[in-house]
Amino acid sequence: MRQPYLHEHVTCVAAPATWLSGPSGDLRADPDGLFVEDRRVLARLAVTVAGHDPVPIGARRIGAAAAEFVAVVRELGDDGADPTVTLTRRREAGPRGGTETLVLANASHATLRATVEVSAATDFATMGVVKDGLTSDLSTVDFAESASAPDGMTVTVAAEPAPSGPGLRWDVTLPPGRSWTARLTFTRGDVEPSAAAGDPPPLAVAADDRRLDALVRTGIEDLQALRRADGPDVYYTAGSPWYLTLFGRDSLWAARLALPLGTEVAAGTLRALARRQGTRHDPDTDEEPGKILHEVRPADASYHLPPVYYGTVDATALWISTLADAWRWGLPPAEVEALLPNVERALAWLGGHDGFIAYRANGKGLVNHGWKDSGDGVQHADGRIAEGPLALSEVQAYAFRAALDGAALLDAFARPGAETWRAWAADLAERFRKAFWCPGGYPAIALDGSGEQVDSIASNMGHLLGTGLLNADESRAVAGHVAALASPFGLRTVSPASAGYNILSYHLGSVWPHDTAITLLGLARDGHHTQAAALVRALLAAGERFGFRLPELYGGDDAATAYPASCRPQAWSAAAGPALLTALLGLDPDVPAGRVTISPLAPSPAGAFRVRGLRVAGAHLDVSVAADGTPTVHSGPPGLQVARKSSSAGM
To answer: 159 is in which domain, residue-wise?
Structure first.
C-alpha cells in the first residue's frame, strides 16, 4: 500500500467536498480529484488550447474554498520571449461539487483563433481506495454531460457558454487585448445539499507580530470550510481529504479550541455525537452503552472500519468536558440541560472501567484508541511496541477532568451524584500518582497490559497540564519535560532519545499543532508562562513556514518539514489559531458565575495586540494587551464582570 502524497497539492474545501490538484490545476493521478461525500466526482480534468498543454506559471489559494491557476500557451501569440496568451483557471469547491472558470486572454497583436478543449473523467472511487493507492483496477469514464455508477452515484457537468463542438470544446476567436470565459459546474447528483458554512465569525486580530493575525485569520477560514450540517446542528469535519466527516475526538477538540469564535459549533458537535451515543455492546464496532463514537462514514464509502465506529477511549470524557467548557463560555442553560442525560450515561461509561480507563484492540478496528492511534504510536523508550490493554496517561487526565466537570454540571442543574464523581476523581488522581510516575520524574505515556510503565518521554504528558490531575510540583516537573520536547516549530510527539524517533513518522517525533496548542493552554493555566510563550512563538514560526494553513502534522526539528500525506486543512490544526488567543489573553470565562477573567502572558510573545469580536455569552469581547502584558478591556458582554488578573513569567 502506498498512500498518495499531498504536500505539493492545492486544496479547496467546502465540506463535504474537497478538490485536490497539483499546481497546474489538472487532475491527472491519485490523489487528484474532486470528491463529495468520500466519493470521487472527477478523477481526470485537463485543458488544452489549440492542442497544446498550457505551461503553469503560478497557483494560489483564495481563502479555503477557492484557488487560481495561471498558465502560458507558449505556442500561440506574438513571437519573442514575452508570453502573450494566458489561460487562467479559477476554481471553487461547493458542498455538492465545484466550478471551474476558464479565462483565455490574448495580449498579442493579432486575432487569436484556437480551440479550447476540456477532458473530464470519473472513476467513482471511494476515498479509502484512493488513500490506500488501490485505484489501478478501476475503470475511468469520460463524460461531457453526465456519468452514472452501478450503485446509483451520478455526476453531471454544466457548461456556460454551451460548447461549440462535440464534448467540452469551444472554437474561440479572440481579438487583441480581449479575453474569453467559460464556466464548468461539476455536481454529484445523488446527494442532498448540506452547506453549513454560514457567516464567518467577526473576530479580528491586529498584532505587532503580524503572523498572529495571519494564523488566526487562515484558521477561521479553514474552520468555516470544514463545517458540516447534521440536521439543524453544525460541527467541524476532521480534515481534508482523508477525514472529511464527523469524528469524536477530532471534532470535539476542534470545537473546544475554537470556543473564542462562539459556542454554536460546540453545541452542534455535542448534539450530533449525543444522538449517536452508544446504547449496546457490539464487539464489531466497539460500541458500548454511554460511549461516544470515533468516526462516521457514508455507507458507500466506509473502509477498513464500520460506517459508525466507536474505537476511541478518550472521546467520551472529552464530550463531557466540551459541554462544561461551552457552558462556561455561555451556552444557554436550556441547551446544556437537554444534554445532561447523556452526561450521566457518559459518566457511567467512565465509572464502569475496572481500575484505569483502558482499551484493548479487538482485531477488527484500530490497534490504538487514543489520539496516537497508529499501530506503532505507543512505544517504550527502547522501541518496543506497547502491548494492551493500554491505559493512556492523558486519558486518565481527561477522565479526571470530566468527572469534576460532570459533577459541576449535575450540581448546577440540581441533579444527584456530584459528590460521587468528585470522590471518584480524587481516587483516580491518587492511583495515577502511584502507578504512572516513572523513576525519571515524569508520567509514563501509558501502562501496558502487564502493568509495566510505557516509559517514553512523550507529548501525551502535556495534556495532563491544566486538568487539575497534577499537584504543583508534578505540574512543574511535566512543564520541564515539555520544554525538552519542544522544537522551533512545536512540540515533538516523543523525545529524540526514544529508539523509535523519526521526525517524519506519524506519532514518533513529528509535531502536531493541536497537540502543541493543548499543551500550551495547559502550561498557561498552570502558570508556566515562559514555556507557554515559547510554544506560542513555535506555532507562529510553523504558520509562517506553511503559508499559515497549518497541516495535520509536520517534521519539526531545525526546519519545519512537510509530512507528505498530511491532511491540510485539518480542523484541530486550524483551531490552534483561536486557541492561541485564549492562551495569550489568559482568557477564562465563567458565564454561570457572571464573570470573565483575563490574565495575559507577560511579556506578550506576540508583542502588543488587540482582539475584537471574541464571543462570550453570545456577545462580543474587545480587548487589547500591551507588549508588557498589561490588558485593556474596551467592551465586554453585558451583565458580566471582566476581571483583569496580573500575571508574571513562570518557570
So the answer is: 10-188
Q: Classify the phi-psi angles of 265: left when phi > 0, otherwise alpha if psi is within -120 to 50, otherwise beta.
A: alpha
Q: How far apart are CA 638 and CA 596, in angstroms?
A: 11
What does the alpha-carbon distance between residue 325 and residue 320 come to, in Å, rounded to a whole number? 9
558-577: pLDDT as tens digits? 789 999 999 999 999 999 99
Question: Using one digit for the tens of pLDDT, what is the confidence trace for 249-306?
Answer: 999 999 999 999 999 999 999 999 999 999 999 999 999 999 999 999 987 776 778 9
d(CA 228, CA 236): 6
As a three-state string, the secondary structure of 493-542 is CECCCCCCCCCCCCCCCCECHHHHHHHHHHHHHCCCHHHHHHHHHHHHHH
Indicate the number of domains in the chain: 2
Residues 6+ apart with CB under 8 A from 233: 267, 268, 269, 271, 272
Is 69 contained in some domain?
Answer: yes
Amino acid occupying residue 10: V
Q: Is residue 636 part of a domain?
A: no
pTM over cut 0.85: yes
Is the peptide bond prior to 389 cis by the omega test (within 30 degrees of 0)? yes
Measure Cα distances from 501 to 58, 143, 343, 390, 441 in Å.
37, 48, 39, 21, 21
Point out which residues pair with 308 in neighbouring strands: 296
φ/ψ bin of 301: left (φ > 0), alpha (ψ from -120 to 50), beta (otherwise) = alpha
In sequence order, the 6+-apart residues with CB closer than 8 A to the CB of 420 are: none
- Same structural domain for residues 231 and 269? yes
Residue with cell 453531471: 156
pLDDT less than 70: residues of the chain: 1, 195-197, 302, 646-651
Last residue of a domain, one of 598, 618, 644: 598
Q: What single DSSP character describes residue 13? A: E
